[in-house]
Amino acid sequence: MKAVAVVLVLVVLAVVQLAMAGRLEQQGGVTCGQIDANMAPCISYLTKGGEPGAACCSGVKTLSGMASSTDERRTACNCLKAAANRYANLKDDAAQALPSKCGVSLNVPISRTINCDTIS
Asked: What is the mean pLDDT of residues 33-53?
């Protein structure tokens, strides 16, 4: 339980830092703050496995409709990549399975290594 609280505090700090720095945000409406807020409930699933909770899937479903243009998808990709790279213990197989476990299709992968410039 203490570890979950620590992770949540780190996520909140990361969101604040990104908002203050304005990093990886572009015009068009999709921001790293939005991406991080929607993915925060998924941290436990992405780092420990198991099944994603209802709050996690709700966030993933919200993300699935956020990025409609190429620029927005690339922004979302960069935000997801940055978020994934903050967690050394992120399970790549869990990240890849997350959209299907939540019953949605994301037009942006959750990956630490993707070249977001290839997203169209």
From this structure: 94
